[in-house]
Structures are given as structure tokens and as C-alpha cells.
Amino acid sequence: MTRYEEAGPLSRIVSVDRLRRSDGRLIVTASPEECAALAADFGIPSIQDLVGTFETSGQLSAFRVRGTVAALVTQVCTVTLEPFEGPVSESVDLLFTDTDRLEGTDAEDADIPDPIVGGKIDFGTITAEFLALGLDPYPRKPGVAFEPHIEDADEGPLAALRGLKSAED
Prior knowledge:
5-stranded mixed β-sheet, 4 helices
């Protein structure tokens, strides 16, 4: 099984050679079915209008992908537990390199650019990953603030015990 056969619900595998011969622009638009599958993967109620817009440049040794991933998502407020919609927009700036250049070198394990596997990049996976990065891990409905419960300042936690001691006297 290749890396791309393990791809998630959103996959758009594109040849780097094709991108280099074109104008270097690519748009990934997720279908409603792909959005529903991603929402289930991310554990949120829904994703709508997911679009990744990318511009590419460079050679196999240093291939740059820049762009934006945007969507309208429904999340559950961590304070009220009510679902609410909100936009997500995340900037993308990635550097890729041909994996064949790194085989057998110490650079295989170093912090290096993302790999170009078989001359291809999965822009669907990039779109899904950057959407996930843009999700708030503790979403709050607009206008809702978390207010911790504060005990009455006049009566501390031992006030009831003091009352018992006074009754014994």
C-alpha cells in the first residue's frame, strides 16, 4: 500500500511536473460528502464550503506551496454546549523536496521539507490538515464568556464548621 492509498476523505493527488508546466495555481473544492467525512473525522457537527487555494513554484529540490484554506464550520461551544457556525481561514506556506535526494543521508531524519512522493503531492491532504490546524480546540460561541463559580466572599469553606463550634458553647 502506498502513502496515497492511505489518504483520508479528501485527496487530490497532483503531479509536480504538471504544476510546473501550468500557471502554478490549484484550487481544491471539497464535495459535501468529503466535508461530512472530514467533520466526522474531526469530531465536529459540520463543515461547509471547504476550499483550498494554492500557488506553487520551484523545482523538485525546493518546491514551494503557498495559499489559503477556508471553510465555514459548525463547532460545539465548550461553555454552553450549543452548536454554532463560524469561519475558519488558515494560511499555507510549505516547502517540499524530492525524497530520492534524501535517501541514505542524515537528512532523512532531520527537520526537512515535506516529501514529494513519486513526483506527486496530495493537495487534498494539505487542505484537510490546514483546516484542522485552524479549528479552535476550545470553541466558544460569539459573545459567550466562561465565568468560574466563585464562593461567597463573606463565607469561606469552613464557615459551617465555625457555626457548629458556636452552637456547642
